[in-house]
Write a structure and sequence with these properties.
By secondary structure, this protein is mainly α. It folds into 2 domains: 2-61, Homeodomain-like (Arc Repressor Mutant, subunit A, Orthogonal Bundle); 71-183, Tetracycline Repressor, domain 2 (Orthogonal Bundle). 77% of the residues lie in helices and 0% in strands. It has helices at residues 2-30, 33-40, 44-51, 54-61, 79-93, 95-104, 108-129, 136-156, 160-164, 167-183. Helix 5 (79-93) packs across helix 6 (95-104) and helix 7 (108-129) crosses helix 8. The longest helix is centred in the first third of the chain and has 29 residues, at 2-30. The protein is elongated and about 55 Å long.
């Protein structure tokens, strides 16, 4: 029985790994259950058995923890830079956010998933910092617009001026904008 459970877990993990790669490469619309199953070296019926349909598979593949830092321990003058550096690390070392970003542009369930991730994970960070006007949702939305726009231009569209900037330059330019959204008066 334990061996069956381990095999089942390995199969699930193989499917998720293949799905993440396929969704990141092809986007939600072009990725198929058949292609994902082929990448995982399993029968397509197994994908359906574990996940039911493409939308549920995508939702499972797009599970993502932003792993946001505790900004309450960072000097107020540095919170924006700290957050930009954190997001650069996340974008550069985990393809799941890129997958979500590519897919969210054309797929409503992917867009909804991205909204959920940022609302449930970024909004509490903003609330903890206690900006002076209590416009928490607006501030979190503006922060999301900055980091998602940066990621779109740097990692998806590969816009040369943004790609050509070194990490420290990006942090120096974008950090003050995020600091304003996080702690300054509107």
């Amino acid at each position: 029985m334990a061996e069956t459970a381990r095999r089942s877990d390995r199969t699930r993990q193989a499917i998720l790994a293949a799905a993440r790669e396929r969704f990141a490469t092809d986007g939600y619309e072009r990725a198929t259950i058949r292609a994902i199953a082929a990448d995982a070296r399993i029968d397509p019926s197994m994908v359906m058995r574990y996940y039911g349909n493409k939308e549920r598979l995508f939702a499972a593949a797009a599970e993502f923890d932003l792993q946001l830092p505790n900004l309450t321990e960072v000097p107020r003058a540095e919170v924006g830079k700290e957050l930009v550096a954190h997001f650069l690390d996340r974008w550069e070392h985990d393809d799941t956010l890129k997958l979500l970003l590519r897919s969210a542009a054309t797929n409503p369930p992917a867009a909804e998933r991205m909204q959920q991730i940022f609302a449930s994970q970024l909004l509490p960070v903003v609330i903890l910092l206690g900006p002076p006007d209590n416009q928490f949702a607006a501030r979190a939305g503006l922060i999301a617009s900055q980091v998602l726009g940066l990621a779109l231009c740097r990692y998806v569209l590969a816009l040369p001026p943004v790609v050509d900037m070194d990490r420290e330059t990006v942090i120096e330019w974008v950090g003050p904008v995020l600091r304003r959204y996080l702690v300054e008066r509107a």
